[in-house]
Each structure stands twice: as C-alpha cells, then as structure tokens.
Amino acid sequence: MKTENEHESVELVDGAVVRQFARAALLAALMGAAVVATIPYPLSPAPVTLQVLVVFLAGLYLGPLWGAASIGLYLAAGAAGAPVFSGMTGGPGVLLSEPTAGFLWTFPIAALVVGLVVHRGLALRDPADVPLATVVAGLTAGLILTYVGGTSWFAWLIGTSLTEAAVAVAIPFVPADLLKMAAAIVIVRSGAIDTV
Amino acid sequence: MLPYEPDDTLAHRLDPRSKLAVQMGFAIAALSHTTPGALLACTLLTGAIMVTTRVPLGRTLAAYRVALVVLVAGPLVTTLSLGSPWLDPSEGVGPALASYRALLVLLVSAAYVRSTPVRDSRAAIQRTIPGKPGRLLGAGIALVFRFLPVLRADLRTIREAMAARLGTERSALERASTTGVLGLSRAFTRADRLALAMQARCFSWNPTLPTLSFSRVDVPAFALAGALVLSVLL
After folding, report:
1. Among B23, B34, B176, whose Cβ lies nearest the Cβ of A93?
2. Mind listing the domains of chain A with CATH numbers?
C-alpha cells in the first residue's frame, strides 16, 4: 500500500533556491541569536537587542522576497517553540498576545519594504552600489512601518490610546533604532558582504 | 527558557494540530472578552491546562519576565495623566484586565511548548500549509532550531574577541556595525556551505516526514477549540 510518505522519484530543489533558502534560514537563526546580543540602553524597561539591525540586513542582502521569508521563518520557528523572542521565550502565545508582538508581525513586512526600495524590484543588486539616499529611504520606511505596527498592536491589545502606546513602546526606542540604522548603513558602505 | 520535556501527560498524547487549535481558540476567546467573569473562566481553563500538562508556574513566569515588565508598564502608563489629578487608577483597570488575559495566553502557550517536540510542530506546519511553501517552511524551522546555538556561539565569540581588543571602549555605533558585519558574514559562510551539503544530500521537495495521526483524545480537544471560538458570539 502506498502511503503519503512514499514517492516514486526524488524532486530536487533548484540550486539557486537552495542557496537563497539556506541563507534565509541562517539569517532567521541569526535573528533568533541576536535576542541575547543586547546593547546597554538606560531608557527602556526591556533590553534593546540588535534584532532590528538583522531585519534591515535581511531586506538589504536577501532582497524583498527571501528577506521577508527569512524573518517569517524566524517567527514560525519561534511559534514552534524556539527560544527566539525577547527574554529567550518561544511558543505560539507570544505571537498572539505579547504586548510587543506587533513589532514581530511587522518585521517581515519591513524587510520586504527595505528590499523593494533598495533593490527596486525583485532582482538583487549589490547594496554597496545603491545610492546612499535610496538605502536611507528604504531603512526609514521599514523603521516607520515597525513603529506603526508595534504601536497600534499595543494600543489594541492593552486598550490604551495610540499616544500612550507610542510613549510606552515606540518613542523610548527611537535613539537606539537610529543607531541600528546607522550601523546598517556602515555595513552596506563597507561592502564586506556579498549577495548571492 | 522553556524547552520541550518528554512526559506522558494528556497534552503529550494529543496531535500537535489539535493543540494548535486549542491555543488559537483560547487566544481568540481570551482576547475577545475582558469582563471579570470571562477572565475567571479563562483563568480556570488555563489552570486546568497547566496542571494536566505539568507546566511549572514559577519557572514559566520567570521565562516570560520581559513580557511581564511590559504587561505591567502598559496599565501604569494609562493611569498617568499630564495634569490634575496626575494619577487616575480607574483609567488603568481596563488595560490591567487586558494585560492579564495576554498573560493567560502566554501560559497556555507554555503548555504547548512543554508538550510538543519540534519535529511534530514541523510536521504539523508542513501538513497544514500545502505545496512548496509548506515544505520550505518545515525544513527552514528545523534549520533555525539546529543553527540557533551555533550562531549564538558565533555572536558570543565575536563579542569576546571585541572585548579582548578593548572593543568595549569604542562607540556603540562601531560595536553594533562590527557585530553585524562579522555575525552576518559568518552566518552567510555557514549558509553557503550548508547549501552545498544539502544539494549533495539531494535536498528535495518530497522528503519523508514523521507520521501524524489523530486519535480519540483529539476529539475533545477540537471540541474545546471550537467551543472557545464560538464563545466570541456570547
């Protein structure tokens, strides 16, 4: 009897897809590892991690599609129980009810937007060759998007006004996130990393 | 950190898909009601789920401490106002109840994590999401689990090497960008080697998965999930 696990032949995954997929998976793991890479920052109740920097790098170096897929993979692994969310937690409940889950949900969209603006479409180009203004525009759009997502989620979940939500979860983090944006620009200009 | 723990509880015997259904149903029910009565019912259900899955409450709360800080901060912010009377506790009641239900959803999710091995979650996702995206998602989740400790060690090495060279004296920008460049280039080097190894091992669209099957204990779990979703209409 044939079961759903039996196949007549092997259907290989195309080499280009395997390379992008492996990079997306490892970047998702890096995103999870970055949750412990904190930078000291006095204004915030929660530790400030380098995760937003990894979201930027996903859009910059994997492009819109694989960048968004990579961050989506990070969320899926977290939902399956990997300790990749803030404070090294995991599980589906974090995505459903954590007060800052709005940021998590908007991260893949931010990576998509950064990728679309920087690569001007789906074909990848070397971010080091892209005009600085375009890179800055892409990163800014991505960052604003995460703030909108994070703030409105918090306001909806906890039942506060948008202003109160912004005071609690967005405004204190602006300086730290601008620092991460500057770091992403330094990384792009260094030309140290290649796209596939 | 909350890991999967092998055990013989009812939740361990359930199919991962029915556990996910209960988790979703619970979240939908908890997030749609904020009355004290509904929250009491949710608390009792959470307690029952945690006891039957043998989730340690203290360790779970400790693991979610960062979320707890934000959950407490939210209601506190709403009680403050710019001007007289400065502090209005009645403003904070609604948000405090909302924070509390969010905590309940997190606790139920801890029961899922404790009772579900990763490969079962992977198989459940791969079976639920059809076609090639589901396949890549399933394989990708497994890779994230595998490489998470490796990349954590990479980041630790980078930070230790920077500290040994007085990197801690440098500006935050320089430290963040150095960590980013080194972390990402190491990750991509590993990814390129991994891609080669996966191709050498015939990485395919039709691999063999662990078999999942529903049993009789899954019926009440699905009924519970359905009842929780329908409770939204109450």
Report:
1. B23
2. 15-190 (1.10.1760.20)
